[in-house]
Structures are given as structure tokens and as C-alpha cells.
TrEMBL record, chain B:
Residues 68-183, 431-550 form the PurM-like N-terminal domain. SUPFAM superfamilies: PurM C-terminal domain-like, PurM N-terminal domain-like. One of its GO terms (biological process) is 'de novo' IMP biosynthetic process. Keywords: ATP-binding, Cytoplasm, Ligase, Magnesium, Metal-binding, Nucleotide-binding, Purine biosynthesis. It comes from marine sediment metagenome. Residues 196-349, 563-702 form the PurM-like C-terminal domain. NCBIfam families: FGAM_synth_II, PRK01213.1. InterPro entries: PRibForGlyAmidine_synth_PurL, PurL_linker, PurM-like_C_dom, PurM-like_C_sf, PurM-like_N, PurM-like_N_sf. HAMAP family: PurL_2. Coiled coil: none annotated. GO terms for molecular function: ATP binding; metal ion binding; phosphoribosylformylglycinamidine synthase activity. This is PurM-like N-terminal domain-containing protein.
Length: 229, 735, 82
């Protein structure tokens, strides 16, 4: 089993994700370079957080056009596991692998803080080790995390149980205050219809060690590892 | 050709001009004059501060690099070094808050990675005018988003800092930025230009007309025209800098370059002449080869441009292609624009002609040094006296008032905008006494803090300097870190005024005494003079950045109370000192009196004791007593407690109650300890000659303080939390 | 040839930045401002192609790159003939 972490110019959670996989979860992990067409036979591709291409046009938009992403798209269509974290989620939306788009946070400020998410769907390769309704404490750090989709799309993703995580309070209640960035349906994590491509705004790699204030993010990596083993 | 008016416009005196003529043996041309005006500016030459800075202790067994380089370097063991520095970006941040602050971040980060270190932390010390004025609010909003915009994008966590408010900063806000990086000890790079014939490469953004004369702007007083200087401010491109970091570190990992220098203030001029001067060599460049963003730029404009995100590299002759390949991998151009020469001259060609031909020694080393006149300020006589004032009737109300004052109130509104968790090292969230970053693959952690109280420094500069160092070190002691190195940013008014020079001299003396007493070296820093607008100067504002090491991160201690039923113990002695307190300012609108005094020996004893109790796991929490005094510090221990645990305590000392509750007497720390460990702690305190007083116990959901069996403070923790937490967001609320 | 392309949020998408600008204008007393929508402007310089070809590629690149059709719409005009 091998993980691949993609480096775009401007990625800044590439080393963090690599560190978590390699040092915390002891997994074989390699970097993938955006200019190449080679996925190096990895079993799971991770698009890390950061500001790919400075996020200068729209968050994640330019990265979606990079040579490697054409391979990632095909990999995903063949059923390969793809996890997009933060900027990675934005890239997956821009690429069209996930429905919808990201708007600026409702209060127009960058938000870096620990928040809580509730597991809505635990029948995915990324969440099967969690209980449905389980609350996870994980940090976010983004400016554009206000998820938007048309009403028809929202109906569709709800019908297909594509919402994997929702922002909630510590007790698991959904409310305006907990939905810090103003996302539609409090969406924090979204999976594609086929169930192999997940995008999430919170950073599980920043919540995989006690020292960093939470270990709740482990369950996501552990789910993937169990699935691939 | 060069007349008096032109000389004045370049902020040079006639004497300085004559010295230039004498040094180079002829009249300089306009480009050459521009070069001297930059390098002989206060900002670059330290001509007014040099003789005083000599007093600072700069050596120590862990010092790898002291002052004079891009950043200071301290050995942190395991083959690693910490590379760190603080810089001011005050003037640009007033003119254009967002870009001023953003490029400040860009600049300080370049200082760090230029030396071969990967930046792992940013902190900033900010000073604004009171938020009751809309202009101050918008400056603060711009500065905070500028820091966030640059730091978040480049992926270096902003993990802490401090913010103070005072009217003296309304027209002169201070933006001091600190960065720290980690490098391998045997892979440090310097600004060297060695090896005659080695090529000089230009890397990064193209050169435009931005920021021409930024360094001279930072060396002159503000007037009404300053806001018109807006085009002077550079625009930052964090994405480009992120590419530069990665490319430079990749180049540095191989043995292919000789030296590297960033182009910060004073751009091409500074980098070429400094690199040459550092190696006793010369440099020759051809401006026609410099990548340009605008058309028709003159040599003067190119040499003085402060376009951001540019580096100068001296490569090994036969490795140029390899260097270029790495930069091209990161979509950056690396262009050969000249070479290292013999003879110590800076020669610049433009359109086939030599337009600059100067001895680098004259540019870098022969700037006049001034021993400026100093005089005790006349304001001290009146301002240090406090007229009698009444005691408050309701101490609970006073406590709430202080908790919601901008200086004391919680700053989450600010640090939530900064990515403080990227790089997965952040062990303590902002708000603790010091920021704590683990060192990967090791048990150790680095603790970082910035400190400086300017009102203390205004009314007793020497004490202000001492306390800035002492409090920063106390912050470190509270988390369990030994201080290992200091960097300082000294923000003052116009040094040509004798009273300002006196403040400077005294503050530096205070810092020097404290650093010597604590045995910590100063490894560099920055002096920012001319923080005056229309003749009004800021308070003397030293900001100390201190780096400490925690040997075992699992033992580090945070300020919040951990569980109900623990004993709360005060280390140190209460004294009746109310001068310069936040209490006087907040309740009586008085910025007067003599600041609390400090005995450095006693301070050191308390700090070492605190460290000892942490290493023996005797305490659960530790929090320094500073602005707002004992009662605020105790309240903060509740508010920073994950469970918001209250307390019920009794204080016995016989003195004015407001002094006991809100006085800012130094050398005090509040700790909490599990009951079974209290005895051991008290015995150890006795042995170490530290005064330790058990005040009471944690628990409940109220903040309760008794004095002589009378309840003098009683507030629900929730109410205190609300006052403290919502004060700043309320101010910025968009209605 | 110079082309100006205007990208802005679709009417159905909330534009918080536009709202913030509107609120500021109201606080400053410009109460007649009914609504503000914020957008982006791109200026493209084209060479070596005809107007007809330009008219073909501009909508294509606007749809594919410059705007995100999930949330944004675009309009364009030739501002300098070449």
C-alpha cells in the first residue's frame, strides 16, 4: 500500500500530510510532482492544503489544470481513492470531481481554529472506522470554505448520502454558530457519488497527535489504511 | 549637478556629502548619491545607535552567529540551529497597512531562509492607537489581514505576539515582525561574494519602481505629505516567495553556491555592496540584464528599487546551469547579471556605460557614526507624580472593566485570522505565556515570546528595558523553557532630539543589564528611529523577542487551571506599586507614575524556581503576572482553563487594595499544584529562598477573592469570560 | 486586440463581499445605493487572430478558466481593435 501526496507550487500542507502518513501512521508515502504525469503506482492520492498557485484566480482553480491532475482525474474515474484536504477540496471542486463550489467565508475573514464535525456517513473508505454521529475535534484554516451548490445539487447529494462531515457544536448539534464559514447544509466534507473521492475543509493531519491538541483526525487516515489493507 | 536641495532630498547632511566626496575623490553622480543615501540612512547604517548597541552582550557558548548578519543563530543541540530575527515595518504599515505588514512578513522570512533555515514560526508585536478612533481600527484591520494574507499563504504559522494600544501610536503604529527558522548546523549560508570570477545571479520577481526610497522613508519623520508617499510602498507576492523558499532551500542542499543575500530595503544596492564588503571583494553587474517589470527604468531607479521577493546569489562558476535548473523547476528565472571582481569596487553598467564605480568599503563601513547629544527629558518631573485618587467602590466591576480593556482582552479575533497550526508543530495555541513549537523527531520544543511595555519605558526607560527582558524570560519560565537567545526591535522617535537619544541610551542600558544578569546573548535586531509625526514622538518602545528551549515537551506547562481542588500558589512578593499600571490608565485615564521596580537577582531566582518545579512535575499550571496585576492574572488562569474552572482565594497583605489587586509588581508568578505536591513545593521554595504563598483552591464556577475575611471580588467565570472574550470582536462588529 | 472580460457572481449566489461594500457605503451616508455586486475584470491582449476567431475563443476560456460556472457568470467586450 502506498500513499501519494501531490505538491503544487504553493502547497503548504504537503510536508505535514507526508509527515503524518510516514511518521505517525508508518505508511509508505511518496510525493507526486504537479508537472509530471506519473502517479508512481500509489493506492491513494492526497491533495494537500495550501495556496496552490497563490489561489490567485480562484482557490484551487489553476491547480486543476496541471498535468498531474489529468492523471488524478483518470485514477479517480477508475475508482482510485482520492482525498482532498482544504485547498485539495477546492481543487476537486474546480476539477469537477465533486459538485459545487467554494465561496469566501461568510464573515469575510480567514478562520484558523479547532472546530467540531459530525460524521454523517460512515459507509465510506474514509470514515468507516467512525461511528455515525461521532463528533471529531479538528482544526480548520481557510478563507474560502463556504460551500455552495445549487438547490438541485444539494437535493442530489443529500439523496445520495454524499455529505460525510457536517460542522456541529461539541455536542453534535447543528447551528449557525457552529457552521463557522456559512456552508450550505453545514457541509465540511463531501464525497462523490461513486464513493471514492472525498473533499474536506478541516485538516485531519493537524489532529493526529496528542501534542497538537487532538487525535480525532486519525480516524480518517486509519479508515483509509484499513480499507486498503 | 548635485546641489543642496538634492542632498537634502536624499536625507543626507552637507557634512555627510562632503565626506562622500572625500572618500571617493570626486563628486558622485545621482545614482551614486542614491546608493549612499540608502546605505548611509539610519535604517541601514545604525549611525546613531551603534555606539550604544555595543553595550549589549552578544557572546555565549551557544551563539553561532551574533549581530551583523541577516539573522542571529543559536545552537539548539542535535546538530540543529535556530535562526531568528525581529524587524520593524512601521512606516510602510501606516501608509498602506495591508501591504506594509504583508511585505514586513515577506522581508523577515527572507532574512531567515537566506541563511539556509526553513522558517517555522512567525510572531508579531503590534502597537496601535485606541480603537475608539475609526482610523486606528482600519489600520489594525489592515495590518492583521496583511500579516494573515502573507503568512497564511506561504505556510509559516503565526503563533503569537502581543498587541498594545496607546494614543501615541495613532499616527505611528508599530508593526514588528519576528521569524524563526531551523537549519542544520553545518548547512548555514552567508552573504558572501567569494571567488573572483564567480557569477552573480538575480533570482525572483522582476524589478519595478516599487518602494523607491523605502529605507530613507523609514529614516525620516512623517509629515502631512507622507500619505501621498503611497506609491512608495511595495506590494507583496507570497506565492512567489513560497517558490523562492523551496527553490533556495533546494539549491542550498547541494554544494553549488557560494553566498546568497536577499534584496530587502535598499534592494540591489544593499545586496551587491554588502556581499562584496563581507568578503573584501568587488562586484560588477550589468543593469541591462536585470529582469524588469516596467519600461524605461533608469539606473537610479533600478539600484534603489525595493521590489519584493528577489534574491542575489553568487554561484560556483561551473554550477550555474544546475542552479538555474532548480529555479526553473520552481518556475523562477535565475539570470546571471554580473560577477565577483577583485579590488573591492561596486561597478554598475547600463547601456554600455559605467554608471556606478564606488569603493564598497565606503558604502558599507565608512558611514559616519554619531554620538548624539542626550538629555534627561523634562516631562519626567511632572509625569512621574501621581496625584491622590480614590479607591474603587466595587472591585468586581473594576476587574471586569480591565478584562475588557483592549490591551488585556482576549485577542482571538486577531489570531484566528492567522494560520497558527500549519507545519504541525504548534503545541500551545496563541494566548499562552509563550508559543511552543515541538522540534520534530526530538523530545525538545522551542518556546517563543515577544514583550515590551512602552509606558514603563516612557517614565523610566532603564527599568522599562530591564522589565522587557525579564518579563519575556518569565513568560518562557512559565511554560518550562530556558532562555537561550534574544533579538530586539527598538522603536523610538527622532534620535536627533536629545531627549529621545536619552530614552534610547537608557533603554539599551536596561536591556544590557538584564541580558547580562540572565546570561543570555543578544544575537541581533533592528532599530527603528523617527517614529514621529508632526513633532510628536511615540513612547520609547523596545520589543524583546526571546527564544527558549524546553527539554521535554511533554512536561511543558500552560497557564490555565487544570482541575478543581488544586492549590493556587503565588510565587514572589506583593508590593504597593501602581505607577504606569493598566489600572490607572483604564480606570482613571492616568498614564503616570513610576513603573514597578525590578531586582534582577530576585527575578532570576523566581524564574529558576519555576523551571525547577516544572522539571519535577510539581505544578499543573503557571502564569506570569503583568498588565492588570495579580487579580487579572488569576482570572486569566480560569479563562484560559479548558474547563473554565473558578477559584476561591484569600490575600492577606496589608496595603491599598487596588494596589494589591491591580498593581504590576514584577517577579511574580501564579502557579497551581495538586494537593499532594504542595508540601514538596513549599519546602523547595524555602530552600531556594523564594516566597511562596498558598492563596486557596481552584474549583466552582466563580472568581472569588477575599481580603481580611471580606469578599472583595465575586464574579461568575462566565461573566468574566464574556467581558474578556467579546471586547475586541464587539469593536470590529460590522453592524 | 484588447478584450475586457467581466466575471461576477450569478444572481442566485450570495456575494458577501458586495454586501460588505454596500454596508460601508450606507454607513458613509450613501443611502441611495440599493445593491453592490463585486466581480473581477480581466484584460486580455490578443494578437494574430481575427475578430471572428476571438469571438469564438473568448467565451470558451471564460467558461473554462476565468469563471467558475457553478457560481459565476461572465460578459465581455472588445475594447481596442487590433
Amino acid at each position: 500500500m502506498k500513499f501519494g501526496v501531490v505538491i503544487f507550487p504553493g502547497s503548504n500542507c504537503d510536508y505535514d500530510t507526508y509527515y503524518a502518513l510516514k511518521n505517525v501512521f508508518k505508511q509508505k508515502t511518496t510525493f507526486l510532482w504537479h508537472k509530471e504525469h506519473d502517479l508512481k503506482n500509489v493506492d491513494c492520492v492526497i491533495l494537500p492544503g495550501g495556496f496552490s498557485y497563490g489561489d490567485y484566480l480562484r482557490s484551487g482553480s489553476i491547480a486543476a489544470f496541471s498535468p498531474l491532475m489529468q492523471e488524478v482525474k483518470e485514477f479517480a474515474l477508475r475508482g482510485g481513492l482520492v482525498l482532498g484536504i482544504c485547498n485539495g477540496f477546492q481543487i476537486l471542486l474546480e476539477l469537477g470531481l465533486l459538485p459545487g463550489a467554494m465561496l469566501r467565508n461568510e464573515k469575510l475573514k480567514f478562520l484558523c481554529q479547532f472546530i467540531h464535525i459530525r460524521v454523517e456517513n460512515n459507509k465510506t473508505p474514509f470514515s468507516h472506522q467512525a461511528k455515525k454521529g461521532q463528533i471529531l475535534k479538528v482544526p480548520i484554516a481557510h478563507f474560502d470554505g463556504n460551500y455552495f451548490a445549487s438547490p438541485e445539487t444539494i437535493l442530489e447529494i443529500k439523496k445520495n448520502s454524499q455529505i460525510v462531515f457536517r460542522y456541529s457544536d461539541a455536542k453534535g448539534q447543528l447551528n449557525e454558530e457552529a457552521n463557522v464559514n456559512g456552508s450550505a447544509e453545514s457541509i465540511a466534507g463531501l464525497i462523490n457519488k461513486a464513493g471514492n473521492v472525498l473533499g474536506m475543509m478541516p485538516h485531519p493531519e493537524r489532529a493526529s497527535e496528542v501534542l497538537l491538541g487532538s487525535e480525532d483526525g486519525r480516524i480518517i487516515f486509519e479508515s483509509i489504511i484499513a480499507k486498503l489493507s | 549637478m548635485i546641489d543642496k536641495k538634492i542632498i537634502e532630498e536624499h536625507n543626507l547632511t552637507l557634512e555627510e556629502y562632503e565626506k562622500i566626496v572625500q572618500l571617493i575623490g570626486r563628486e558622485p553622480n545621482i545614482t551614486e548619491l542614491g546608493i549612499f543615501s540608502l546605505m548611509w540612512s539610519e535604517h541601514c547604517s545604525y549611525k546613531s545607535s551603534k555606539i550604544h548597541l555595543k553595550k549589549l552582550p552578544v557572546t555565549g557558548k551557544n551563539v553561532v552567529q551574533g549581530p551583523g548578519e541577516n539573522a542571529g543563530i543559536i545552537d539548539i543541540g542535535d546538530g540543529l540551529v535556530a535562526v531568528f530575527k525581529i524587524e520593524s515595518h512601521n512606516h510602510p504599515s501606516y501608509i498602506e497597512p495591508y501591504q506594509g505588514a504583508a511585505t514586513g512578513i515577506g522581508g523577515i522570512l527572507r532574512d531567515i531562509f537566506t541563511m539556509g533555515a526553513r522558517p517555522i514560526a512567525l510572531l508579531d508585536s503590534l502597537r496601535f492607537g485606541p480603537l475608539s478612533k475609526p482610523k486606528n481600527k482600519s489600520i489594525m484591520e489592515g495590518v492583521v489581514s496583511g500579516i494573515a494574507g502573507y503568512g497564511n499563504s506561504i505556510g509559516v504559522p503565526t503563533v503569537g505576539g502581543d498587541i498594545y494600544f496607546n494614543d501615541c501610536y495613532s499616527r505611528n503604529p508599530l508593526v514588528n515582525v519576528f521569524a524563526l527558522g531551523i537549519a542544520e548546523k553545518n548547512k548555514i549560508f552567508y552573504a558572501k561574494a567569494e571567488g573572483i570570477g564567480n557569477p552573480v545571479l538575480y533570482v525572483g520577481s522582476k524589478t519595478g519602481r516599487d518602494g523607491i526610497h523605502g529605507a530613507t522613508m523609514a529614516s525620516a519623520e512623517f509629515d502631512q505629505d507622507s500619505e501621498k508617499k503611497r506609491p512608495n510602498v511595495q506590494v507583496g507576492d507570497p506565492f512567489k516567495e513560497k517558490l523562492l523558499v523551496e527553490a533556495c532551500l533546494e539549491v542550498m542542499a547541494k554544494d553549488i553556491i557560494v553566498g546568497i543575500q536577499d534584496m530587502g530595503a535598499a534592494g540591489l544596492t544593499c545586496s551587491t555592496s554588502e556581499m562584496a564588503a563581507n568578503s573584501g571583494a568587488g562586484i560588477e553587474i550589468n543593469l541591462d540584464l536585470v529582469p524588469q517589470r516596467e519600461e524605461g527604468m533608469t539606473p537610479y531607479e533600478m539600484m534603489l528599487s525595493e521590489s519584493q521577493e528577489r534574491m542575489l546569489i553568487v554561484a560556483k562558476k561551473d554550477k550555474v546551469e544546475e542552479v538555474q535548473q532548480i529555479f526553473s523547476k520552481w518556475d523562477l528565472d535565475a539570470v546571471t547579471i554580473g560577477q565577483v571582481t577583485e579590488g573591492g569596487r561596486l561597478k554598475v553598467r547600463f547601456e554600455g556605460k559605467i554608471v556606478v564605480d564606488l569603493p564598497v568599503d565606503a558604502i558599507i563601513n565608512l558611514c559616519p557614526v554619531y554620538k548624539r547629544e542626550s538629555k534627561i527629558p523634562s516631562y519626567l518631573k511632572s509625569e512621574t507624580i501621581i496625584k491622590p485618587f480614590p479607591s474603587p467602590e466595587n472591585y468586581s466591576k473594576t476587574l471586569l472593566k480591565l478584562l475588557s480593556s483592549a490591551t488585556i482582552a482576549e485577542k482571538e479575533w486577531v489570531y484566528r485570522q492567522y494560520d497558527h497550526t500549519v507545519q504541525v508543530n504548534t503545541a500551545f495555541l496563541p494566548g499562552a505565556d509563550a508559543s511552543l513549537l515541538r522540534i520534530k523527531n526530538s523530545k525538545k520544543a522551542l518556546a517563543l515570546t515577544l514583550d515590551g511595555n512602552s509606558l514603563y519605558s516612557y517614565l523610566d526607560p532603564r527599568t522599562g528595558g530591564k522589565i522587557a527582558v525579564a518579563e519575556a524570560c518569565r513568560n518562557l519560565a512559565c511554560v518550562g523553557a530556558r532562555p537561550v537567545g534574544v533579538t530586539n526591535c527598538l522603536n523610538f522617535g527622532n534620535p536627533e532630539k536629545p531627549e529621545i537619544m536619552w530614552q534610547f541610551k537608557e533603554v539599551v542600558e536596561g536591556i544590557a543589564q538584564a541580558c547580562s544578569a540572565f546570561n543570555i546573548p543578544v544575537t541581533g535586531g533592528n532599530v527603528s528611529f523617527y517614529n514621529d509625526t508632526e513633532g510628536i514622538s511615540i513612547y520609547p518602545s523596545p520589543v524583546l523577542g526571546v527564544v527558549g528551549i524546553v527539554d521535554d515537551v511533554s512536561r511543558a506547562v500552560s497557564p490555565g487551571f487544570k482541575k478543581a481542588g488544586d492549590s493556587v500558589i503565588l510565587l514572589g512578593e506583593n508590593k504597593e506599586e501602581l505607577g504606569c499600571s493598566e489600572y490607572l490608565k483604564c480606570v482613571f485615564n492616568m498614564e503616570k507614575g513610576i513603573p514597578p521596580q525590578i531586582d534582577l537577582k530576585e527575578e532570576k531566582r523566581i524564574q529558576e524556581f519555576c523551571l525547577e518545579t516544572i522539571s519535577m512535575s510539581l505544578i499543573e499550571s503557571a502564569h506570569d503576572i503583568s498588565e492588570g496585576g495579580l487579580s487579572i492574572s488569576l482570572a486569566e488562569c480560569s479563562l484560559l482553563s479548558p474547563l473554565k474552572i473558578g477559584f476561591s482565594l484569600a490575600i492577606q497583605d496589608d496595603m491599598r487594595l487596588d494596589a494589591l489587586l491591580f498593581g504590576e509588581t514584577q517577579s511574580r508568578i501564579v502557579v497551581s499544584s495538586s494537593n499532594q505536591k504542595v508540601k514538596k513545593l513549599l519546602n523547595l521554595a524555602k530552600k531556594r529562598k523564594v516566597k511562596a504563598t498558598v492563596l486557596g483552591k481552584t474549583g466552582g464556577d466563580r472568581i472569588i477573592i477575599y481580603h481580611s475575611n471580606k469578599k472583595i471580588i465575586d464574579i461568575p467565570v462566565n461573566e468574566a469570560y464574556k467581558a474578556w472574550k467579546e471586547a475586541i470582536p464587539d469593536i470590529f462588529q460590522v453592524k | 486586440m484588447k478584450v475586457r472580460i467581466l466575471v461576477s457572481f450569478k444572481d442566485s449566489v450570495l456575494d458577501p463581499q458586495g454586501q460588505a461594500v454596500k454596508n460601508t457605503l450606507h454607513t458613509l451616508g450613501y443611502s441611495s445605493i440599493k445593491d453592490v455586486r463585486q466581480g473581477k475584470v480581466f484584460e486580455l491582449e490578443l494578437e494574430g487572430i481575427s475578430k471572428k476567431e476571438a469571438e469564438k475563443i473568448i467565451p470558451k476560456i471564460s467558461d473554462k478558466v476565468l469563471a467558475n460556472p457553478v457560481i459565476e457568470k461572465f460578459s465581455w467586450q472588445i475594447i481596442e481593435k487590433g
